[in-house]
């Protein structure tokens, strides 16, 4: 099928729903560990509590990708029904997460939230490949990254902003502060509204051969064999990108799960207070606990706000790439390599900064890596696979995102960090080393079509 080139606003409209998806991910990534700590989790237990997130991605994305490849409605298209269903579930879960009364309920809500976000997210990746010709693929994925950057920046700063408007950061022991609850409620509203915008402003191409599509759709019990077959016939470029993805996502999972305990402890000097260390029946000790807890909550707001900087940085990086790739070719391999190495340096700097203001430098560098991770691997992959199987291929590619996170959650982060010492900040050093290794792994990519594509007619 000869796909026509789309205008800036058409690509913007089809990508806008990612604003809501990233609100969900940013609130989850920036504040779930804080919620776990507030509900009594020890810092060494936090990675394991995050296991729900990658496991749901491992299960949900290939299934949703397979199903969306076999879905077609003249009114709703192929991918949009999944956007909408996932958005409704995600919005409900986002609202409920900070109201969790116990640790196990919070972990359960994380499971539901991540599964719901994945239902919306995977078809968005496939939509870019569905709608855009090869010459606009980099442009399209970078546009998604631009919108993701906006979402990360705003959502990560929401608890701090809500607190500045007068909503309390103080709460009783084991209760999430109202500032976080209000922030998550705003995120739920933005999630649903932005997905609805894309659903109602974007159309989709029908299957190129409707008769063949209906025959494929009519086949029964093909899901497992098809998934196994597609894994077995995985292109070489996809396997090599998998190595890059492994180290990239190990690093970012480490940041999402451990940045709050690491930075509140090492940089802000306000670790989460342990209630067992205070005699709460004694007024002075109860007041001391409340003071320490409020200091931890306020520092956590600032950690979230600083983390938002990587969204802002990735947005600026994506904007530059949008402007450049709309007219010229880029070498995806070297762009991705350089961005990942700079992000790794950002993580390594965290252990040595003299005050929290310098965290901005670290997260700006991390944002360059994040902006590249959200665009370059997908642009390289989409130029190397069968377009008729784009949904299921993108779902399978997600394995290279979730497997490193599962490894990290099952003890990888704690084990490697412990080799450097028992301070929580060592987890950020591990993230930095991992991201630099991801950058160097780009030397494995040699397919010319994956590395670069001419984005304008010569």
UniProtKB/TrEMBL annotation:
Pfam family, one: MFS_1
Stretches that traverse the bilayer: 12-36, 48-68, 80-97, 103-121, 141-162, 182-200, 241-259, 303-322, 334-353, 359-380, 392-413, 425-445
SUPFAM superfamilies (alphabetical): MFS general substrate transporter
Membrane topology: Multi-pass membrane protein
Every Major facilitator superfamily (MFS) profile domain range: 237-458
A GO term for molecular function: transmembrane transporter activity
UniProt-annotated location(s): Membrane
InterPro entries per record: MFS (IPR011701), MFS_dom (IPR020846), MFS_trans_sf (IPR036259)
Alphabetic keyword roster: Membrane, Transmembrane, Transmembrane helix, Transport
Protein name: Maltose/moltooligosaccharide transporter
Species this protein is from: Tenacibaculum adriaticum
């Amino acid at each position: 099928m000869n796909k026509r080139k789309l205008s800036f606003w058409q690509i913007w409209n089809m990508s806008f729903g990612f604003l809501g998806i990233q609100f969900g991910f940013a609130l989850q990534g920036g504040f779930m560990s804080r919620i776990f700590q507030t509900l009594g989790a020890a810092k060494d237990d936090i990675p394991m509590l995050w296991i729900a997130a990658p496991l749901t991605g491992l299960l949900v994305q290939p299934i949703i990708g397979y199903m969306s490849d076999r879905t077609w409605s003249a009114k709703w298209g192929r991918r949009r029904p999944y956007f909408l269903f996932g958005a409704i579930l995600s919005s409900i879960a986002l609202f409920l997460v900070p109201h969790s009364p116990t640790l196990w309920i919070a972990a359960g809500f994380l499971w539901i939230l991540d599964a719901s976000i994945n239902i919306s997210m995977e078809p968005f990746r496939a939509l870019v490949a569905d709608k855009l010709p090869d010459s606009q693929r980099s442009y399209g994925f970078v546009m998604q990254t631009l919108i993701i950057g906006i979402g990360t920046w705003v959502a990560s700063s929401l608890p701090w902003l809500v607190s500045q408007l007068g909503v309390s950061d103080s709460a009783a022991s084991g209760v999430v502060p109202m500032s976080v609850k209000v922030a998550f409620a705003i995120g739920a509203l933005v999630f649903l509204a932005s997905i609805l915008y894309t659903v109602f402003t974007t159309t989709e191409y029908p299957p190129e051969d409707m008769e063949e599509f209906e025959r494929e759709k009519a086949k029964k019990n093909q899901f497992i064999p098809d998934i196994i077959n597609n894994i077995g016939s995985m292109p070489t470029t996809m396997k090599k990108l998998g190595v890059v993805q492994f180290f990239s996502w190990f690093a970012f999972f480490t940041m999402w799960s451990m940045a709050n305990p690491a930075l509140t402890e090492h940089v802000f000097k306000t670790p989460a207070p342990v209630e067992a260390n205070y005699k709460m029946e004694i007024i002075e000790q109860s007041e001391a606990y409340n003071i320490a807890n409020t200091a931890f909550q306020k520092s956590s707001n600032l950690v979230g706000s600083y983390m938002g900087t990587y969204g802002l940085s990735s947005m600026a990086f994506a904007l530059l790439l949008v402007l450049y790739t709309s007219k010229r070719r880029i070498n995806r391999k070297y762009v991705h390599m350089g961005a990942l190495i700079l992000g790794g340096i950002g993580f390594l700097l965290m252990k040595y900064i003299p005050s929290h203001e310098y965290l901005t430098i670290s997260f700006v560098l991390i944002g360059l890596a994040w902006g590249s991770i959200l665009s370059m691997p997908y642009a390289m992959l989409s130029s190397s696979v069968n377009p008729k199987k784009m949904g299921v291929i993108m779902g399978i590619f997600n394995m290279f995102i979730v497997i490193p996170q599962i490894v990290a959650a099952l003890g990888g982060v704690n084990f490697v960090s412990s080799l450097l010492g028992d301070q929580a900040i060592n987890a950020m050093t591990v993230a930095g080393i991992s991201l630099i290794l991801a950058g160097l792994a780009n030397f494995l990519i040699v397919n010319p079509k994956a590395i670069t594509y001419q984005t304008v007619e010569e």
